User: Fold this.
Amino acid sequence: MSDSALSVVEFLLTARVYSDDRRFDENDLPAPYRKVFWEDGSIERPLSVTEEAATTATGVEEPWAAISDLMFTQREEFTGSISLNQPEMAAEWFATRADEDRLSHNPTLAAYFEDGEFDVEADYETARENTRPIQADRMWIDNLLETYFDADDEEEAEMLDLVDIRAPEEIETTLDDLVLTENQESEISKIVKAIEHRDYLAEIGLREIGKLLFVGPPGTGKTTTSRALAHDLDLPFVEVKLSMITSQYLGETAKNVDKVFEVAKRLSPCILFIDEFDFVAKTRRSDEHAAIKRAVNTLLKSIDEVSLIQDDVLLIGATNHPDQLDAAAWRRFDEIVNFPKPDHRMRADIFSVITRRMDISGYDPEEIAERTDGLTGSDLRMVLREAVLEALTENRRTLTQRDLLDAIEDFEERDTLKDLDMIEGDHEALVAGGNPGGDHDHDHDH
Assistant:
């Protein structure tokens, strides 16, 4: 019997068991199943399965064709719905064919088989832990925002423009895709343990935890690491750039800063990522408008009041300019994590990671590392991009070591020109193809 039939039967059996047993909630359904049954902010019983829903949930293009020869399946011609006419027989059939991995990611069926008299390994608690919570689904996030914030209200619409909210499923990078220092890995490991043991930390009164500050030059991975952490922990990622609170389109900036934290608390558990944190100190020292200063003071107060232990919000601040932070900013964080430019070993590892799906003739990552002293992870990706595109112009998909070395030379030449742009002024910048301000393409933290 094909995997297609097994996938469709699993879907039908899950829908039947979930419909019949009210003890289950949305988090007992695998995330792909939730999507097809989600409507108007909830999942209503009984779950009715159409062929279209089965295709969306399982990826099987012709679900009825995959199961039509099974004695325990039926199809309603008029509605196009498919179902099980003998669920017990379907369960026995599934139990003899399903591997442990299927049941370890399906809480509904794990509970069903764990409680039943079937000779199959199943553990409900494990499956529940392995299943992404519904609070991390894009549909749940959008529904919550629609419920609590009026998009037709100009001020609330402005507030939502402050933040970029991503569901874990929308983040492609994982921590395994990154090359981290020992210190970075250690701090991430600690915070993961803190999230796992929030109840214990609350019980012993250790609440001052879960506010990290990532510091380092642009392009060293502060944002990417934060997003990857959200992906791996199945947490919504709420990102705000502090400079946006000065936008001319924003009304009451302090009120909007408050609402950013309100969004994070309503989306909890989540990660709240505050970029450009040096903006706080610059604003406090400057002659900025009083409204902006109030917004910054509101921000600091909001940081004091948000908690991983009480609110399930992990706060990560990031800055490219730690030298500009004042004591008021520093003391808001319980841990500082350094993101330096990668050393020789890290550059070799980064290049090996970002080229692992590629065919490169004569590839020597050590030579690449030697030739890229001072470059960040973001810079190395730009080098690879240039090499790939140059090879494609010659209709080649196999790169050579020479391609990479040439791309490094081109990158260094471009960077030198940009540095000259910044010194010589706007006219030269435009001639060189740069922005009038001489901004570096790789100055953004990726």
